[in-house]
Automatic annotation (TrEMBL):
Native source organism of the sequence: Amantichitinum ursilacus
Enzyme's top EC category: oxidoreductase
Domain FAD/NAD(P)-binding: 8-327
InterPro entries the record matches: FAD/NAD-bd_sf, FAD/NAD-binding_dom, FAD/NAD-linked_Rdtase_dimer_sf, Mn/Fe_SOD_N_sf, Pyr_nuc-diS_OxRdtase, Pyr_nucl-diS_OxRdtase_dimer
Keyword Nucleotide-binding: yes
GO MF annotations in UniProt: dihydrolipoyl dehydrogenase (NADH) activity; flavin adenine dinucleotide binding; NAD(P)H dehydrogenase (quinone) activity
Keywords tagged on the record: FAD, Flavoprotein, NAD, Nucleotide-binding, Oxidoreductase
Name of the protein this chain belongs to: Dihydrolipoyl dehydrogenase
Length: 464
Protein backbone atom coordinates (compact mmCIF):
# COMPACT_ATOMS: atom_id res chain seq x y z
CA UNK A 1 0.00 0.00 0.00
CA UNK A 2 1.35 3.41 -0.89
CA UNK A 3 1.34 6.33 1.48
CA UNK A 4 1.57 10.05 0.72
CA UNK A 5 3.03 12.63 3.09
CA UNK A 6 2.50 16.34 2.54
CA UNK A 7 5.09 18.50 4.27
CA UNK A 8 6.86 21.88 4.11
CA UNK A 9 10.46 20.60 4.19
CA UNK A 10 11.82 17.13 3.37
CA UNK A 11 15.43 16.47 4.35
CA UNK A 12 17.16 13.53 2.64
CA UNK A 13 19.76 12.00 4.95
CA UNK A 14 19.90 11.91 8.76
CA UNK A 15 23.65 12.56 9.03
CA UNK A 16 25.23 15.61 10.65
CA UNK A 17 24.05 17.98 7.90
CA UNK A 18 20.58 16.45 7.61
CA UNK A 19 19.84 16.49 11.33
CA UNK A 20 20.98 20.13 11.55
CA UNK A 21 18.78 20.97 8.53
CA UNK A 22 15.74 19.24 10.03
CA UNK A 23 16.17 21.10 13.36
CA UNK A 24 16.64 24.46 11.60
CA UNK A 25 13.51 23.95 9.49
CA UNK A 26 11.47 23.10 12.60
CA UNK A 27 12.98 26.03 14.53
CA UNK A 28 11.79 28.29 11.74
CA UNK A 29 8.22 27.10 12.18
CA UNK A 30 7.88 24.65 9.30
CA UNK A 31 6.71 21.06 9.30
CA UNK A 32 9.55 18.75 8.30
CA UNK A 33 10.55 15.12 7.81
CA UNK A 34 14.02 13.58 7.77
CA UNK A 35 14.47 10.55 5.52
CA UNK A 36 17.21 8.01 6.25
CA UNK A 37 18.03 4.96 4.17
CA UNK A 38 20.96 3.59 6.18
CA UNK A 39 21.67 3.16 9.89
CA UNK A 40 21.18 6.13 12.21
CA UNK A 41 24.27 7.48 13.95
CA UNK A 42 26.05 9.60 11.27
CA UNK A 43 29.16 8.82 9.25
CA UNK A 44 31.31 10.87 11.62
CA UNK A 45 30.40 8.87 14.70
CA UNK A 46 29.97 5.42 13.11
CA UNK A 47 32.80 5.09 10.59
CA UNK A 48 34.54 8.46 10.36
CA UNK A 49 35.99 11.06 12.71
CA UNK A 50 35.45 9.25 16.01
CA UNK A 51 36.53 5.61 15.40
CA UNK A 52 39.53 6.85 13.39
CA UNK A 53 40.65 9.07 16.27
CA UNK A 54 40.13 6.18 18.71
CA UNK A 55 42.41 3.95 16.62
CA UNK A 56 44.96 6.78 16.41
CA UNK A 57 44.87 7.22 20.20
CA UNK A 58 45.82 3.54 20.67
CA UNK A 59 48.58 3.92 18.08
CA UNK A 60 49.95 7.00 19.85
CA UNK A 61 50.07 5.12 23.14
CA UNK A 62 52.12 2.34 21.51
CA UNK A 63 54.39 4.83 19.76
CA UNK A 64 55.09 6.86 22.91
CA UNK A 65 56.01 3.69 24.82
CA UNK A 66 58.57 2.77 22.17
CA UNK A 67 60.20 6.21 22.28
CA UNK A 68 61.01 6.87 25.90
CA UNK A 69 64.70 5.83 25.87
CA UNK A 70 65.97 9.21 24.60
CA UNK A 71 64.70 10.73 27.86
CA UNK A 72 66.60 8.14 29.90
CA UNK A 73 63.33 6.41 30.66
CA UNK A 74 63.42 2.73 29.75
CA UNK A 75 60.54 0.35 29.35
CA UNK A 76 62.15 -2.98 30.28
CA UNK A 77 60.26 -5.93 28.96
CA UNK A 78 58.01 -6.46 26.00
CA UNK A 79 55.49 -3.98 24.68
CA UNK A 80 52.51 -6.13 23.78
CA UNK A 81 49.69 -4.89 21.60
CA UNK A 82 46.53 -6.93 21.97
CA UNK A 83 44.65 -6.35 18.73
CA UNK A 84 41.38 -7.64 20.17
CA UNK A 85 41.57 -5.24 23.10
CA UNK A 86 42.51 -2.35 20.78
CA UNK A 87 39.51 -2.99 18.54
CA UNK A 88 37.24 -3.64 21.50
CA UNK A 89 37.96 -0.16 22.92
CA UNK A 90 37.63 1.47 19.49
CA UNK A 91 34.20 -0.11 19.00
CA UNK A 92 32.99 0.34 22.58
CA UNK A 93 33.81 4.05 22.65
CA UNK A 94 32.56 4.47 19.08
CA UNK A 95 29.24 2.89 20.09
CA UNK A 96 29.01 5.36 22.96
CA UNK A 97 29.35 8.30 20.56
CA UNK A 98 26.87 6.71 18.14
CA UNK A 99 24.51 6.20 21.09
CA UNK A 100 24.40 9.97 21.76
CA UNK A 101 23.38 10.62 18.14
CA UNK A 102 20.83 7.81 18.09
CA UNK A 103 19.24 9.10 21.29
CA UNK A 104 18.93 12.51 19.64
CA UNK A 105 17.17 10.87 16.69
CA UNK A 106 14.85 9.00 19.08
CA UNK A 107 13.72 12.37 20.41
CA UNK A 108 12.48 13.35 16.95
CA UNK A 109 8.71 12.63 16.73
CA UNK A 110 7.99 9.35 14.89
CA UNK A 111 5.84 11.12 12.29
CA UNK A 112 8.84 13.28 11.31
CA UNK A 113 11.05 10.26 10.51
CA UNK A 114 10.84 8.30 7.28
CA UNK A 115 12.93 5.16 6.78
CA UNK A 116 14.15 4.33 3.28
CA UNK A 117 16.09 5.65 0.32
CA UNK A 118 14.59 8.70 -1.36
CA UNK A 119 14.77 9.85 -4.95
CA UNK A 120 13.28 12.76 -6.83
CA UNK A 121 10.22 12.33 -9.04
CA UNK A 122 10.22 16.07 -9.69
CA UNK A 123 11.51 19.17 -7.84
CA UNK A 124 9.16 18.76 -4.90
CA UNK A 125 8.06 15.12 -5.03
CA UNK A 126 10.12 12.31 -3.56
CA UNK A 127 9.58 8.59 -3.71
CA UNK A 128 10.90 6.56 -0.78
CA UNK A 129 11.34 2.79 -1.26
CA UNK A 130 8.71 2.85 -4.02
CA UNK A 131 5.85 2.96 -1.49
CA UNK A 132 5.99 6.38 0.20
CA UNK A 133 5.42 9.55 -1.77
CA UNK A 134 6.48 12.78 -0.14
CA UNK A 135 5.13 16.05 -1.48
CA UNK A 136 7.34 18.72 0.04
CA UNK A 137 7.37 22.38 -0.88
CA UNK A 138 11.17 22.43 -0.28
CA UNK A 139 13.85 19.69 -0.18
CA UNK A 140 17.28 19.55 1.45
CA UNK A 141 19.78 17.07 0.01
CA UNK A 142 22.12 15.95 2.82
CA UNK A 143 23.08 12.51 1.57
CA UNK A 144 26.79 12.54 2.47
CA UNK A 145 29.54 10.77 0.54
CA UNK A 146 30.92 7.25 0.03
CA UNK A 147 34.40 5.86 -0.64
CA UNK A 148 35.34 6.02 -4.32
CA UNK A 149 36.86 2.63 -5.11
CA UNK A 150 38.80 2.48 -8.41
CA UNK A 151 37.61 -0.39 -10.63
CA UNK A 152 41.12 -1.90 -10.82
CA UNK A 153 41.07 -2.72 -7.08
CA UNK A 154 38.24 -5.22 -7.51
CA UNK A 155 40.87 -7.86 -8.47
CA UNK A 156 41.41 -8.19 -4.71
CA UNK A 157 37.87 -9.57 -4.22
CA UNK A 158 36.88 -9.84 -0.56
CA UNK A 159 40.36 -8.71 0.55
CA UNK A 160 39.40 -5.20 -0.65
CA UNK A 161 38.08 -2.97 2.14
CA UNK A 162 37.16 0.67 2.87
CA UNK A 163 37.29 2.66 6.10
CA UNK A 164 33.92 1.30 7.32
CA UNK A 165 35.34 -2.25 7.32
CA UNK A 166 38.34 -1.32 9.49
CA UNK A 167 36.01 -0.28 12.30
CA UNK A 168 34.17 -3.60 12.13
CA UNK A 169 37.33 -5.65 12.81
CA UNK A 170 37.43 -7.73 16.00
CA UNK A 171 41.22 -8.03 15.81
CA UNK A 172 44.08 -6.28 14.03
CA UNK A 173 45.28 -8.03 10.87
CA UNK A 174 48.93 -8.84 10.10
CA UNK A 175 49.29 -6.71 6.98
CA UNK A 176 47.43 -4.03 5.01
CA UNK A 177 48.27 -2.31 1.72
CA UNK A 178 46.73 1.17 1.71
CA UNK A 179 46.00 2.91 -1.59
CA UNK A 180 45.66 6.68 -1.22
CA UNK A 181 47.96 8.91 0.88
CA UNK A 182 45.15 11.42 1.42
CA UNK A 183 43.64 12.26 4.79
CA UNK A 184 42.05 8.86 5.47
CA UNK A 185 44.97 6.80 4.14
CA UNK A 186 47.52 8.76 6.17
CA UNK A 187 45.54 8.65 9.42
CA UNK A 188 44.61 4.97 9.23
CA UNK A 189 47.84 3.79 7.55
CA UNK A 190 50.13 5.36 10.14
CA UNK A 191 47.93 4.24 13.05
CA UNK A 192 47.87 0.62 11.85
CA UNK A 193 51.62 0.67 11.32
CA UNK A 194 52.18 1.94 14.86
CA UNK A 195 49.94 -0.84 16.14
CA UNK A 196 52.29 -3.40 14.62
CA UNK A 197 50.44 -4.08 11.35
CA UNK A 198 52.73 -4.34 8.28
CA UNK A 199 51.62 -1.34 6.19
CA UNK A 200 52.55 -0.27 2.67
CA UNK A 201 51.01 3.04 1.62
CA UNK A 202 50.82 3.68 -2.13
CA UNK A 203 49.74 6.88 -3.90
CA UNK A 204 49.63 8.40 -7.35
CA UNK A 205 51.08 11.71 -8.55
CA UNK A 206 52.92 12.47 -5.30
CA UNK A 207 50.06 13.89 -3.21
CA UNK A 208 50.49 13.87 0.59
CA UNK A 209 47.31 14.53 2.60
CA UNK A 210 45.69 17.79 1.51
CA UNK A 211 49.04 19.64 1.12
CA UNK A 212 49.50 21.84 -1.95
CA UNK A 213 52.74 23.65 -0.99
CA UNK A 214 55.57 21.68 -2.67
CA UNK A 215 58.13 22.36 0.11
CA UNK A 216 55.79 21.23 2.89
CA UNK A 217 54.66 18.23 0.87
CA UNK A 218 58.19 17.02 0.25
CA UNK A 219 59.10 17.48 3.94
CA UNK A 220 56.00 15.51 4.94
CA UNK A 221 56.84 12.74 2.48
CA UNK A 222 60.32 12.41 4.01
CA UNK A 223 58.97 12.28 7.57
CA UNK A 224 56.37 9.57 6.88
CA UNK A 225 58.76 7.53 4.70
CA UNK A 226 61.20 7.39 7.65
CA UNK A 227 58.54 5.58 9.67
CA UNK A 228 56.85 3.10 7.31
CA UNK A 229 56.68 2.27 3.62
CA UNK A 230 55.19 5.47 2.24
CA UNK A 231 55.37 6.09 -1.49
CA UNK A 232 52.97 8.78 -2.76
CA UNK A 233 54.15 8.19 -6.33
CA UNK A 234 54.16 4.41 -6.31
CA UNK A 235 55.04 2.15 -9.22
CA UNK A 236 52.66 -0.79 -9.01
CA UNK A 237 53.53 -3.57 -11.43
CA UNK A 238 50.92 -6.21 -10.68
CA UNK A 239 47.88 -6.59 -8.44
CA UNK A 240 45.99 -9.80 -7.85
CA UNK A 241 44.79 -12.48 -5.53
CA UNK A 242 46.69 -15.57 -4.34
CA UNK A 243 44.68 -17.89 -2.12
CA UNK A 244 43.15 -15.82 0.64
CA UNK A 245 45.73 -13.01 0.28
CA UNK A 246 46.01 -9.91 -1.89
CA UNK A 247 49.25 -10.00 -3.88
CA UNK A 248 51.00 -6.81 -5.04
CA UNK A 249 54.21 -6.43 -7.03
CA UNK A 250 55.69 -2.94 -6.78
CA UNK A 251 58.96 -1.04 -7.00
CA UNK A 252 60.22 -0.16 -3.54
CA UNK A 253 61.97 3.07 -2.55
CA UNK A 254 65.36 1.47 -3.30
CA UNK A 255 64.23 0.80 -6.87
CA UNK A 256 63.85 -2.98 -6.43
CA UNK A 257 60.87 -4.98 -7.63
CA UNK A 258 59.18 -6.75 -4.72
CA UNK A 259 56.13 -8.96 -4.39
CA UNK A 260 54.23 -9.03 -1.11
CA UNK A 261 51.07 -10.60 0.22
CA UNK A 262 48.53 -8.73 2.34
CA UNK A 263 45.58 -9.67 4.50
CA UNK A 264 43.69 -6.60 3.25
CA UNK A 265 43.88 -3.79 0.71
CA UNK A 266 42.37 -0.57 2.04
CA UNK A 267 41.04 1.74 -0.66
CA UNK A 268 41.37 5.32 0.59
CA UNK A 269 41.38 6.93 -2.83
CA UNK A 270 38.87 9.72 -2.14
CA UNK A 271 35.13 10.01 -1.60
CA UNK A 272 32.21 10.61 -3.97
CA UNK A 273 29.08 12.59 -3.05
CA UNK A 274 25.97 10.39 -2.76
CA UNK A 275 23.96 12.08 -5.51
CA UNK A 276 24.11 9.50 -8.33
CA UNK A 277 20.96 7.60 -7.39
CA UNK A 278 18.83 10.58 -6.36
CA UNK A 279 17.02 10.92 -9.69
CA UNK A 280 18.37 14.47 -10.06
CA UNK A 281 17.64 14.20 -13.79
CA UNK A 282 13.95 14.49 -12.84
CA UNK A 283 14.50 17.91 -11.27
CA UNK A 284 15.04 21.12 -13.17
CA UNK A 285 18.36 21.85 -11.43
CA UNK A 286 21.69 22.27 -13.19
CA UNK A 287 24.38 19.64 -12.52
CA UNK A 288 28.15 20.09 -12.83
CA UNK A 289 30.46 17.72 -14.74
CA UNK A 290 30.53 15.31 -11.76
CA UNK A 291 26.74 15.20 -11.55
CA UNK A 292 26.64 17.35 -8.38
CA UNK A 293 24.00 20.12 -8.31
CA UNK A 294 25.29 23.63 -8.98
CA UNK A 295 24.51 25.66 -5.85
CA UNK A 296 25.19 28.99 -4.15
CA UNK A 297 27.96 28.52 -1.55
CA UNK A 298 26.41 31.11 0.79
CA UNK A 299 22.74 30.10 0.69
CA UNK A 300 23.20 26.44 -0.43
CA UNK A 301 20.28 26.91 -2.84
CA UNK A 302 20.41 25.03 -6.14
CA UNK A 303 19.73 27.77 -8.71
CA UNK A 304 16.41 29.42 -7.89
CA UNK A 305 14.77 26.09 -7.07
CA UNK A 306 13.33 25.02 -3.70
CA UNK A 307 16.18 22.48 -3.44
CA UNK A 308 19.15 22.99 -1.10
CA UNK A 309 22.30 20.87 -0.67
CA UNK A 310 24.49 20.58 2.44
CA UNK A 311 27.44 18.60 3.83
CA UNK A 312 29.58 16.06 1.97
CA UNK A 313 26.85 15.75 -0.68
CA UNK A 314 27.89 19.09 -2.18
CA UNK A 315 31.55 18.01 -2.29
CA UNK A 316 33.08 21.36 -1.28
CA UNK A 317 34.37 21.11 2.31
CA UNK A 318 33.72 17.53 3.42
CA UNK A 319 34.31 18.13 7.13
CA UNK A 320 32.15 17.63 10.18
CA UNK A 321 31.84 21.25 11.36
CA UNK A 322 31.13 22.38 7.80
CA UNK A 323 28.36 19.75 7.49
CA UNK A 324 26.78 21.04 10.71
CA UNK A 325 26.97 24.70 9.61
CA UNK A 326 25.74 23.96 6.12
CA UNK A 327 22.88 21.83 7.41
CA UNK A 328 21.71 24.72 9.56
CA UNK A 329 21.94 27.17 6.64
CA UNK A 330 20.15 24.81 4.23
CA UNK A 331 17.37 24.03 6.73
CA UNK A 332 16.88 27.69 7.57
CA UNK A 333 16.75 28.72 3.93
CA UNK A 334 14.43 25.85 3.05
CA UNK A 335 12.09 27.22 5.72
CA UNK A 336 12.50 30.84 4.55
CA UNK A 337 12.28 29.99 0.83
CA UNK A 338 11.93 31.96 -1.43
CA UNK A 339 13.56 34.64 0.80
CA UNK A 340 16.95 32.96 1.29
CA UNK A 341 19.81 34.50 3.31
CA UNK A 342 23.57 33.84 3.43
CA UNK A 343 24.58 31.41 6.19
CA UNK A 344 27.60 31.58 8.47
CA UNK A 345 30.84 30.83 6.65
CA UNK A 346 33.80 30.49 9.00
CA UNK A 347 37.49 30.71 8.13
CA UNK A 348 38.50 27.42 6.53
CA UNK A 349 40.49 25.00 8.68
CA UNK A 350 41.61 21.42 8.14
CA UNK A 351 43.62 19.09 10.36
CA UNK A 352 45.05 15.66 9.58
CA UNK A 353 45.53 13.63 12.75
CA UNK A 354 48.78 12.06 11.63
CA UNK A 355 51.97 12.45 13.65
CA UNK A 356 53.29 15.02 13.06
CA UNK A 357 49.90 16.54 12.35
CA UNK A 358 49.20 18.35 9.08
CA UNK A 359 47.07 21.49 9.01
CA UNK A 360 45.74 24.00 6.51
CA UNK A 361 44.12 27.34 7.25
CA UNK A 362 42.59 29.86 4.86
CA UNK A 363 43.92 30.05 1.32
CA UNK A 364 45.96 27.13 0.11
CA UNK A 365 49.33 27.72 -1.58
CA UNK A 366 47.86 26.45 -4.85
CA UNK A 367 45.12 29.12 -4.74
CA UNK A 368 47.58 32.05 -4.39
CA UNK A 369 48.79 34.10 -7.37
CA UNK A 370 52.55 34.20 -7.78
CA UNK A 371 53.95 37.61 -6.82
CA UNK A 372 50.88 38.62 -4.80
CA UNK A 373 52.04 37.16 -1.47
CA UNK A 374 55.06 36.52 0.75
CA UNK A 375 55.81 33.30 2.62
CA UNK A 376 57.05 33.19 6.21
CA UNK A 377 58.75 29.95 7.19
CA UNK A 378 59.72 28.07 10.31
CA UNK A 379 61.31 24.68 10.79
CA UNK A 380 60.27 22.97 14.02
CA UNK A 381 63.53 20.98 14.14
CA UNK A 382 65.28 23.52 16.36
CA UNK A 383 62.18 25.05 17.93
CA UNK A 384 62.65 25.19 21.69
CA UNK A 385 59.58 23.46 23.17
CA UNK A 386 59.32 21.00 20.27
CA UNK A 387 62.92 19.89 20.94
CA UNK A 388 62.31 19.65 24.69
CA UNK A 389 59.50 17.18 24.01
CA UNK A 390 61.32 15.43 21.15
CA UNK A 391 58.48 16.44 18.86
CA UNK A 392 60.81 18.53 16.70
CA UNK A 393 59.74 17.47 13.24
CA UNK A 394 57.90 19.98 11.11
CA UNK A 395 57.92 22.76 8.56
CA UNK A 396 55.42 25.63 8.36
CA UNK A 397 54.62 28.22 5.71
CA UNK A 398 52.39 31.23 6.45
CA UNK A 399 51.19 33.36 3.55
CA UNK A 400 50.59 37.13 3.70
CA UNK A 401 49.24 39.57 1.15
CA UNK A 402 52.25 41.44 -0.27
CA UNK A 403 50.33 44.77 -0.48
CA UNK A 404 48.21 44.83 2.67
CA UNK A 405 50.17 42.54 5.02
CA UNK A 406 46.96 40.62 5.73
CA UNK A 407 47.32 37.03 6.87
CA UNK A 408 45.97 34.85 4.04
CA UNK A 409 46.58 31.27 5.08
CA UNK A 410 49.05 28.58 6.08
CA UNK A 411 50.07 25.01 5.31
CA UNK A 412 52.27 22.95 7.56
CA UNK A 413 53.23 19.73 9.22
CA UNK A 414 54.34 19.87 12.82
CA UNK A 415 53.61 19.30 16.49
CA UNK A 416 50.23 20.29 17.97
CA UNK A 417 49.07 21.61 14.62
CA UNK A 418 45.43 21.07 15.68
CA UNK A 419 45.82 23.82 18.30
CA UNK A 420 47.90 26.28 16.25
CA UNK A 421 45.39 25.86 13.41
CA UNK A 422 42.68 27.31 15.63
CA UNK A 423 44.80 30.33 16.58
CA UNK A 424 45.41 30.96 12.89
CA UNK A 425 41.80 30.37 11.78
CA UNK A 426 40.52 32.77 14.45
CA UNK A 427 43.10 35.38 13.35
CA UNK A 428 42.04 34.95 9.74
CA UNK A 429 38.37 35.31 10.55
CA UNK A 430 39.11 38.54 12.42
CA UNK A 431 40.97 39.87 9.38
CA UNK A 432 44.28 40.42 11.15
CA UNK A 433 47.51 41.54 9.48
CA UNK A 434 50.80 39.77 10.22
CA UNK A 435 51.82 42.83 12.31
CA UNK A 436 48.63 42.62 14.39
CA UNK A 437 49.17 38.89 14.97
CA UNK A 438 52.71 39.62 16.21
CA UNK A 439 51.23 42.07 18.73
CA UNK A 440 49.44 39.16 20.40
CA UNK A 441 51.02 37.36 23.38
CA UNK A 442 53.26 34.32 22.98
CA UNK A 443 54.05 32.50 26.23
CA UNK A 444 57.45 30.91 26.79
CA UNK A 445 58.31 28.13 26.14
CA UNK A 446 55.50 26.95 23.83
CA UNK A 447 55.25 25.55 20.33
CA UNK A 448 53.42 28.72 19.28
CA UNK A 449 56.80 30.48 19.49
CA UNK A 450 57.55 28.56 16.29
CA UNK A 451 54.51 30.18 14.70
CA UNK A 452 55.89 33.55 15.85
CA UNK A 453 59.15 32.83 14.01
CA UNK A 454 57.22 32.17 10.80
CA UNK A 455 55.15 35.35 11.29
CA UNK A 456 58.33 37.38 11.92
CA UNK A 457 59.86 35.96 8.75
CA UNK A 458 56.75 37.01 6.78
CA UNK A 459 56.81 40.45 8.46
CA UNK A 460 60.47 40.98 7.50
CA UNK A 461 59.71 40.02 3.90
CA UNK A 462 56.72 42.38 3.81
CA UNK A 463 58.95 45.22 4.96
CA UNK A 464 62.06 44.35 2.91
C1 LIG B 1 37.41 7.80 8.09
C2 LIG B 1 36.90 9.22 8.14
C3 LIG B 1 37.43 10.08 9.08
C4 LIG B 1 36.97 11.39 9.17
N1 LIG B 1 37.52 12.22 10.10
C5 LIG B 1 37.10 13.49 10.19
C6 LIG B 1 37.63 14.36 11.18
O1 LIG B 1 38.49 13.97 11.97
N2 LIG B 1 37.18 15.63 11.22
C7 LIG B 1 36.23 16.10 10.35
O2 LIG B 1 35.86 17.27 10.44
N3 LIG B 1 35.69 15.29 9.41
C8 LIG B 1 36.10 14.01 9.31
N4 LIG B 1 35.54 13.18 8.38
C9 LIG B 1 34.51 13.73 7.47
C10 LIG B 1 33.12 13.77 8.16
O3 LIG B 1 32.85 12.50 8.70
C11 LIG B 1 32.07 14.15 7.13
O4 LIG B 1 32.42 15.39 6.54
C12 LIG B 1 30.68 14.27 7.73
O5 LIG B 1 30.36 13.12 8.45
C13 LIG B 1 29.64 14.51 6.63
O6 LIG B 1 28.34 14.59 7.19
P1 LIG B 1 27.07 14.54 6.23
O7 LIG B 1 25.88 14.86 7.07
O8 LIG B 1 27.30 15.34 5.02
O9 LIG B 1 26.98 13.02 5.76
P2 LIG B 1 26.59 11.68 6.56
O10 LIG B 1 26.82 11.76 8.01
O11 LIG B 1 27.26 10.58 5.79
O12 LIG B 1 25.02 11.57 6.35
C14 LIG B 1 24.42 11.27 5.13
C15 LIG B 1 23.26 10.32 5.38
O13 LIG B 1 22.42 10.28 4.23
C16 LIG B 1 21.93 8.96 4.09
N5 LIG B 1 21.49 8.82 2.70
C17 LIG B 1 22.27 8.83 1.58
N6 LIG B 1 21.49 8.77 0.48
C18 LIG B 1 20.19 8.70 0.91
C19 LIG B 1 18.95 8.62 0.24
N7 LIG B 1 18.85 8.61 -1.09
N8 LIG B 1 17.84 8.56 1.00
C20 LIG B 1 17.91 8.57 2.36
N9 LIG B 1 19.07 8.66 3.04
C21 LIG B 1 20.19 8.73 2.32
C22 LIG B 1 23.11 8.09 4.49
O14 LIG B 1 22.70 6.80 4.86
C23 LIG B 1 23.71 8.89 5.65
O15 LIG B 1 23.20 8.46 6.89
C24 LIG B 1 35.96 11.85 8.28
C25 LIG B 1 35.40 10.98 7.34
C26 LIG B 1 35.86 9.68 7.28
C27 LIG B 1 35.23 8.74 6.28
N1 LIG C 1 41.04 14.74 9.90
C1 LIG C 1 40.03 15.02 9.11
O1 LIG C 1 39.46 16.10 9.15
C2 LIG C 1 39.55 14.01 8.13
C3 LIG C 1 39.91 12.68 8.26
C4 LIG C 1 39.49 11.78 7.29
C5 LIG C 1 38.69 12.22 6.25
N2 LIG C 1 38.35 13.50 6.14
C6 LIG C 1 37.55 13.98 4.99
O2 LIG C 1 37.30 12.93 4.09
C7 LIG C 1 37.68 13.33 2.79
C8 LIG C 1 38.07 12.14 1.98
O3 LIG C 1 39.32 11.60 2.44
P1 LIG C 1 40.18 10.65 1.50
O4 LIG C 1 41.46 10.41 2.20
O5 LIG C 1 39.36 9.50 1.04
O6 LIG C 1 40.37 11.52 0.21
P2 LIG C 1 41.54 12.51 -0.23
O7 LIG C 1 41.04 13.20 -1.42
O8 LIG C 1 42.06 13.28 0.93
O9 LIG C 1 42.74 11.54 -0.65
C9 LIG C 1 42.65 10.59 -1.67
C10 LIG C 1 44.06 10.21 -2.07
O10 LIG C 1 44.00 9.06 -2.88
C11 LIG C 1 44.90 9.21 -3.96
N3 LIG C 1 44.47 8.30 -5.01
C12 LIG C 1 43.44 8.44 -5.89
N4 LIG C 1 43.37 7.36 -6.70
C13 LIG C 1 44.37 6.53 -6.31
C14 LIG C 1 44.83 5.26 -6.76
N5 LIG C 1 44.23 4.63 -7.78
N6 LIG C 1 45.89 4.71 -6.15
C15 LIG C 1 46.49 5.33 -5.10
N7 LIG C 1 46.10 6.53 -4.63
C16 LIG C 1 45.06 7.11 -5.24
C17 LIG C 1 44.80 10.70 -4.29
O11 LIG C 1 45.93 11.11 -5.04
C18 LIG C 1 44.78 11.28 -2.88
O12 LIG C 1 46.09 11.44 -2.37
C19 LIG C 1 38.79 14.34 3.00
O13 LIG C 1 38.89 15.23 1.93
C20 LIG C 1 38.36 15.03 4.26
O14 LIG C 1 37.58 16.14 3.96
C21 LIG C 1 38.76 14.41 7.07
Amino acid sequence: MTKTIEIDVAVIGAGTAGLAAYRAARMNGKSAVVIEGGPYGTTCARVGCMPSKLLIAAAEAAHELRHTAAFGVHVDGQIRIDGREVMDRVKRERDRFVGFVVRGVENIPAEDKVVGYARFVDNTTLLVNEDITIKASRVVIATGSSPAVPEAFHVFGDRLIVNDDVFAWDDLPGSVAVFGPGVIGLELGQALSRLGVKVRLFGVRGGVGPLSDPAIRSYAKKVFAEEFHFDPDAKIIKMGREGDKACITYVNLQGEEVTEHFDYVLSAAGRTPNVGKLGLENTGIELNARGVPVFDAETLQCGTSPIFIAGDANNVLPLLHEAADEGKTAGTNAALYPHVVPGLRRATIGVVFSDPQIAMVGKRFIDLREGSFVTGEVSFEDQGRSRVMLKNKGLMHVYADADTGMFLGAEWIGPRAENIAHTLAWSLQQGLTIGEMLDMPFYHPVIEEGLRTALRDAFAKLNA
